[in-house]
Design brief:
The chain is an all-alpha fold. The protein has helices at 2-29, 37-175, 178-192. The chain is rod-shaped, with a radius of gyration of 63 Å.
Length: 193
């Protein structure tokens, strides 16, 4: 309390000093003019008015000013306490968040390792499946090649037979005589019966 009283007293003295400098400075500038009794009279009345104002401020406004300052002090103390409590709450929240982050990093590491293991397993399965498919594709390709080879072989045989028949049909009529023709007819009729 005494500290607040001293602060108020110092504050009032500073205000009085500033006002006196203002009043005296104004008069000092007017010193070049012709002197008369009026400027001195105005200066004396200004000081008297200033003294009355200072007296009234100390007499009637001292208590309200002190109460106001005390109220401000209490408000500031409450605000500081509230901010300190809020700071502690935020610090606790930060600690919880940091703990959660550490836990989540551990979980993330475990999850990452599990995903890598699953990926390795899937990779092996995919490789095995691809190998099986490639074997099946190779076997299928071999079967197709064999089939095409057999078809080509059969086609070649058929063409050879057709060529041989065509060639025989060309040459046989020239080489078969009527006697040969009669013998063949008799043989055929004997076989058919």
């Amino acid at each position: 309390m005494r500290c607040v009283h001293k602060i108020v007293l110092i504050f009032c003295c500073i205000i009085a000093g500033i006002l006196s400098l203002h009043f005296l400075g104004y008069e000092a500038l007017a010193a070049e003019k012709a002197s008369s009794w009026r400027p001195i009279y105005d200066l004396i009345l200004r000081w008297i008015n200033f003294g009355i104002i200072v007296f009234l401020v100390f007499k009637y406004l001292k208590t309200p000013i002190m109460n106001f300052l005390r109220g401000q002090k209490e408000k500031l103390a409450q605000e500081i306490k509230r901010l300190e409590d809020k700071k502690q709450g935020i610090s606790a929240n930060i600690e919880e968040i940091l703990k959660t982050i550490d836990e989540s990093e551990v979980r993330f590491t475990e999850l990452k390792e599990r995903i890598v293991r699953q990926g390795e397993k899937k990779k092996k399965v995919i490789i095995q499946t691809a190998q099986k498919q490639s074997k099946m594709m190779l076997e299928d390709a071999k079967r197709r090649i064999d089939t095409h080879f057999i078809q080509a072989k059969n086609k070649f045989k058929a063409e050879m037979i057709d060529k041989a028949i065509d060639l025989a049909m060309e040459r046989l009529p020239k080489e078969i005589t009527t006697e040969d023709n009669e013998k063949l007819t008799i043989e055929y009729l004997t076989l058919v019966k």
